[in-house]
């Protein structure tokens, strides 16, 4: 099976005032294509930072990230941007919708730099919103949506370009039990369509769901799971 | 092209979403540009008006100085100049004019004797003065006194009792910059009002066949008339241009950099890139916008605001200058006379000047607006979304 995402001794240190803080500490992992995996851990354990590093949102201090066998760490900003746009769908914990734009405008936002949305793209966006139960809310301002609606809107946007890898930060954080179950079902369905999905979560409803293929635990920036699939060291 | 069209659509939406802030910037810029362009418009119109009038001025004006003071030019001076038999000399015309204080308007008027159709101005109504008790008045005097053709004015020369003079004509406001404070009458009446003897003249107006020879002719006349002062029309024109350049330049120099810097700095510091905008840039980068996409959008946004603000400012400046007569600026540009011209200036616009104003405002505005966006767009999206420094 093809490896979709691999990290090698991936480390991220922050300078926090006088102190140096290690957010991610030498993490090596490997995720095959078409898997739904969860990164579990308490707040501040480094899950979100690891997700950001994997998605090219954050530059690592050391180590490497490979997507489908190609390193993204040393890519120029423009190439990383293209990669983010074309192959990765990212859903932030902060949801990252522009509050005074409509939901549909938010979903179509990734298409603006490549010429905007045509009829086909708009139809796809509307279909995605319908798939996430948001039909009828397309014209609503993001600021007027509930937390759950924004959550699902952000997930719909992440899927607009049909990415191979979906990275989600706390995808069930704003949802009740029913909503969380629906999101897990949606993610499992997306996985079944061949996408690789990584979720950072501290929600046991997601981390312990039997449809999740594997769950890692992070503490203090380290991967604690001794059985974690580890990548082989990259060739120099 | 398609990319820029999509960016432009996005920017128009963003402008609408932030309409309160953008409207404030646009109006602030319009006020600033309006004030600045009004100064330029008025000074350009004044220069244009003077250039139009300058063709009626003599090529050389001969005055007489005695111990450094202006004195009357004797009639014998005309004979001496004619005796030089200068080949370029076309005509010599003696003139009688001077200043007279008029208590009712608390200011000086210029009395010109014997001037007819060659007077510096055109008639707005009535006819030129022919009789001893007739006068033609400038637009400014008429405006101040509310005088019209047919009215009578009492003017008194030094030590003389007032003479009742009938207004037979009013000079047009189109040449108000030079003719607002004129009183044209016969030579005899002018001499009486100015207290001049019959033997002398205020100056001599010399017309040349070839004006470019003014320097040579002036040297010859100065040599023939000891104590004579010669004024070259081209030098007067230059002085006039420089006067309005200096006044407009002074106002512009004081206003433009100070207000522009103040405006831009205020907006940059106070609302240039708040947390919401930094977050928005974070969102854009996170969903696949490159740094150049973010900057292009920001440039479009600033350019649109700058262009609309500056264009609106030019319109405001035009209306202020040519419709309302530049209230508040007229004193600084015209001088501090109590007899102002009515400033019904004919619009004189220089297209290059308009482009220069637009460029001088829009380009720095775009630059200053883009820098904070560029600094933010260089950061990781994650950092922007979390609100980090």
Walk me through this protein's architecture:
The complex is a heterodimer of chains A (236) and B (389). Chain A has helices at 47-54, 77-86, 103-108, 119-131, 147-158, 177-192, 204-207; strands spanning 3-16, 19-32, 36-40, 62-67, 70-71, 88-91, 165-169, 196-201, 214-219, 222-223. Chain A has one domain (33-59, 75-217): Rossmann fold (3-Layer(aba) Sandwich). The longest helix of chain A is centred in the last third of the chain and has 16 residues, at 177-192. In chain A, strand 9 (214-219) and strand 10 form a beta hairpin. Chain A is of the alpha/beta class and 236 residues long. In chain A, the strands form two sheets. Chain A has a six-stranded mixed beta sheet. In chain A, strands 2-1-4-5 form a four-stranded antiparallel beta sheet. Chain B is an alpha+beta fold and 389 residues long. Chain B folds into two domains: 2-53 and 239-385, no CATH class; 59-232, no CATH class. Chain B contains 13 helices and 13 strands. In chain B, the strands form two sheets. In chain B, strands 1, 2, 4, 5, 6, 7, 8, 9, 10, 12 and 13 form an eleven-stranded mixed beta sheet that branches. In chain B, strand 8 and strand 9 form a beta hairpin. In chain B, helix 2 runs antiparallel to helix 8 and helix 10 (291-323) runs antiparallel to helix 12. The mean pLDDT of chain B is 80. The interface between A and B is medium-sized, with 33 and 30 residues.
């Amino acid at each position: 099976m093809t490896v979709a995402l691999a990290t090698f001794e991936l480390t991220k240190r922050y300078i926090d005032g006088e102190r140096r803080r290690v957010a991610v500490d030498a993490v090596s992992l490997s995720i095959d294509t078409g898997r739904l995996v969860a990164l579990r851990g308490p707040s501040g354990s480094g899950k979100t930072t690891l997700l950001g590093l994997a998605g090219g949102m954050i530059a690592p201090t050391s180590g490497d990230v490979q997507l489908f066998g190609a390193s993204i760490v040393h890519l120029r900003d423009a190439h990383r941007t293209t990669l983010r746009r074309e192959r990765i769908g990212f859903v932030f914990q902060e949801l990252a919708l522009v509050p005074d734009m409509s939901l549909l405008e938010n979903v179509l936002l990734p298409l603006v730099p490549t010429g905007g949305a045509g009829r086909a793209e708009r139809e796809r966006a509307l279909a995605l919103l319908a798939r996430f139960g948001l039909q009828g809310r397309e014209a609503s301002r993001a600021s007027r949506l509930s937390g759950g609606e924004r959550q699902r809107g952000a997930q719909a946007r992440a899927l607009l370009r049909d990415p191979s890898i979906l990275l989600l930060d706390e995808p069930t954080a704003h949802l009740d039990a029913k909503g969380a179950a629906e999101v897990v079902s949606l993610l499992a369905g997306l996985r079944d369509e061949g996408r690789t999905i990584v979720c950072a979560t501290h929600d046991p409803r997601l981390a312990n769901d039997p449809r999740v293929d594997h769950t890692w635990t992070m503490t203090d920036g380290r991967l604690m799971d001794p059985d974690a699939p580890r990548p082989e060291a990259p060739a120099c | 092209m398609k990319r820029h069209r999509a960016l432009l659509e996005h920017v128009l939406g963003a402008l609408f979403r932030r309409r309160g802030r953008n409207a404030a910037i646009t109006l602030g810029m319009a006020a600033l540009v309006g004030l600045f362009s009004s100064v330029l418009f008025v000074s350009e119109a004044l220069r244009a008006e003077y250039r139009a009038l300058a063709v009626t001025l003599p090529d050389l004006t001969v005055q007489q100085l005695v111990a450094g003071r202006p004195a009357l030019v004797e009639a014998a001076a005309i004979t001496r100049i004619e005796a030089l038999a200068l080949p370029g000399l076309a005509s010599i015309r003696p003139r009688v004019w001077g200043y007279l204080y008029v208590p009712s308007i608390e200011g000086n008027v210029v009395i010109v004797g014997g001037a007819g159709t060659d007077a510096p101005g055109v008639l707005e109504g009535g006819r030129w003065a022919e009789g001893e008790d007739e006068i033609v008045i400038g637009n400014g005097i008429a405006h101040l006194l509310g005088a019209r053709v047919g009215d009578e004015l009492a003017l008194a020369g030094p030590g003389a009792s007032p003479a009742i003079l009938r207004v037979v004509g009013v000079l047009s406001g189109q040449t108000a910059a030079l003719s607002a404070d004129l009183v044209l009458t016969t030579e005899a009446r002018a001499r009486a009002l100015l207290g001049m003897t019959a033997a002398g003249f205020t100056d001599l107006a010399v017309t040349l066949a070839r004006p470019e020879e003014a320097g040579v002719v002036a040297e010859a006349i100065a040599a023939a008339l000891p104590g004579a002062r010669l004024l070259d029309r081209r030098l007067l024109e230059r002085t006039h241009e420089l006067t309005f350049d200096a006044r407009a330049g002074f106002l512009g120099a004081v206003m433009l950099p100070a207000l522009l810097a103040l405006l831009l700095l205020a907006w940059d510091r106070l609302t240039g890139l708040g947390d919401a905008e930094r977050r928005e840039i974070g969102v854009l980068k996170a969903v696949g916008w490159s740094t150049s996409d973010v900057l292009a959008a920001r440039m479009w946004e600033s350019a649109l605001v700058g262009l609309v603000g500056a264009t609106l400012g030019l319109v405001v400046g035009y209306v202020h200058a040519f419709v309302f007569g530049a209230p508040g600026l007229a004193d600084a540009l015209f001088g501090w006379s109590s007899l102002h011209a009515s400033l019904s200036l004919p619009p004189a616009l220089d297209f290059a000047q308009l482009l220069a104003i637009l460029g001088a405002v829009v380009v720095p505005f775009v630059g200053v607006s883009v820098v904070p966006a560029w600094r933010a767009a260089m950061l990781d999206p994650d950092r922007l979304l979390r609100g980090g420094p």
